[in-house]
Design goal:
24 strands, globular, about 280 residues, 4-stranded antiparallel sheet, Methylamine Dehydrogenase, Chain H, 1 helix, binds calcium ion, mainly beta
Length: about 280
């Protein structure tokens, strides 16, 4: 009886811990989008920037572009910025959109809608996500198995901040004032790196590679696994899958989450679209 009660309490407890948020699709958009890799919300201009790889992720084909879409799912400007190869993760800072483009980091002047600068490093192979630290330095992951690294752009120079001895195929990034959160994809973990001394702590055993990484506003994260999973990581590090479109071959790439709108926006990569969901906890 005692064992039964303990078991019952454990189930109830697990039920509380894993209370499943409600997820409802609110819109989806295709309209010329091509191999959609990332979505980034510009809260000041109330616009979403969509990176379109257009073709293969490492092809230097010159056809990649960035689109502007409203948070309500209206296409505003399909080919807002063109002339890229395969744009992927991005971050906004001080009127600039920083976006990776294979082996270079491209700085776009948002108001001009033009490329303002390009930064690169000889060893860069597969630059992926971008985040901006509290001091304005731009951090960039290299997801290549041959160059696991996190770069730091400061004073116009890209330098290696963490190398392969500390990170394993890093992909998704998110920065707070104190920490850089990293989808350490090779290890299937979410880690955080303290900016001040580069001290590394594991946040969660995600059990999958983390492509997109966004805070939920309550200490947790929403993460994506490129093949098609979108998961919620609680502040305690518990992982629950919200959506799984792997079998339908609808990818879940570098997503965006807007906590005040409870709006989750997922780029579907080879499915050439963006899907938006309302999340109710
Ligand atoms: Ca391309
Ligand atoms: Ca990514």
């Amino acid at each position: 009886m005692k064992r039964y009660l303990t078991y019952l309490i454990m189930i109830c407890f697990a039920g509380l811990t894993f209370a499943q948020p409600e997820v409802n699709k609110v819109w989806e958009l295709q309209k010329g989008l091509q191999t959609t890799e990332s979505v980034n919300y510009d809260a000041e201009r109330k616009v979403l920037y969509i990176s379109n790889i257009h073709g293969q992720p490492l092809a230097k084909d010159g056809n990649g572009f960035i689109s502007q879409v409203s948070p309500e799912g209206k296409m505003l400007n399909l080919r807002w910025v063109t002339g890229l190869d395969a744009p992927k993760g991005a971050a906004i800072h001080d009127g600039k959109l920083f976006v990776t483009d294979i082996d270079r980091l491209v700085e776009i002047d948002i108001d001009a809608g033009e490329i303002a600068n390009i930064y690169t490093d000889d060893k860069a192979i597969f630059l992926n996500d971008v985040a901006v630290g509290p001091d304005g330095a731009v951090y960039v992951t290299d997801y290549s198995p041959d160059n696991s690294a996190i770069y730091r752009l400061s004073n116009g120079q890209l330098t290696v901040w963490l190398g392969a001895d500390q990170v394993d195929r890093p992909n998704g990034l998110y920065a707070t004032d104190e920490f850089l959160f990293v989808g350490n994809t090779g290890a299937g973990t979410l880690i955080k790196v303290r900016f001040s001394d580069k001290d590394i702590t594991q946040v969660a055993e995600a059990g999958m590679g983390i492509d997109g990484l966004r805070p939920t506003g309550d200490g947790g994260f929403i993460v994506s696994n490129w093949a098609g999973k979108t998961a919620w990581i609680s502040p305690d590090g518990d992982v629950q899958v919200l959506l799984n479109t792997t079998e339908q071959e609808i990818n879940s790439a570098d997503l965006e989450y807007i906590p005040e709108k409870q709006l989750l926006i997922i780029p579907t990569f080879f499915d050439n679209a963006v899907h938006a969901y309302k999340i109710k906890k």
